[in-house]
Amino acid sequence: MKRWIAGLVALGVVAYVGSVVWISVAAKGHTFDVADAPEAPVVIVLGAQIKDGKPMAFLKGRLDAAVQLVEDGKASAVLVSGDANGASGDEIAAMTNYLVEQGIDERRIVGDPYGLDTYDTCSRAIHTYGVSKALIVTQGYHVPRAVALCRDAGIDADGVNSDCGCATTTLVKNAAREWILAKPKAAIDMLYGRDAKVTSPPEDSVNSAVRLY
């Protein structure tokens, strides 16, 4: 019995280490700070919690990075991807309103209300919105997974680190969740290539926004 338990533990450790290595290798050479980011037609901003219709610290940091990328000429359009019916509210409306308040032309912004997680965001970006090359913005601990998932989906993606502006305890908690739960789940998703939870017919809204600029 002890040998069976030890074997299962060893198998779990191997699977966990393998998932972390897989994601790290997939993202290697494709993560940047805002100032060093390469150019791409579109920047993808991953949703996060909002409060009273406004972005909280994590999401604000991502949006501020996207604003800088557009202002620096690194991207022409912004795809804001999240849950329009999230527990904290409409992430898409909050992100769009914030970007417009920061001076981003609303015609540059496309909202995906069914980007329910990072995997779904990447899958829908290519299959629904026709994104083939993009920058994807999130906090540093999350960037490798986001890049790995988007590149696995077929997008030529580079990740951009954004600020957090949040409490250290919040950052540590989210980073721990990323390493313990999210990375192994991402590896499983990439291995099996599941469909996004919500699929939609292809549309040209992102490419139309890019063509405007």
Automatic annotation (TrEMBL):
This is ElyC/SanA/YdcF family protein. PANTHER family: INNER MEMBRANE PROTEIN, PROBABLE PERMEASE, INTEGRAL MEMBRANE PROTEIN. Residues 42-180 form the DUF218 domain.
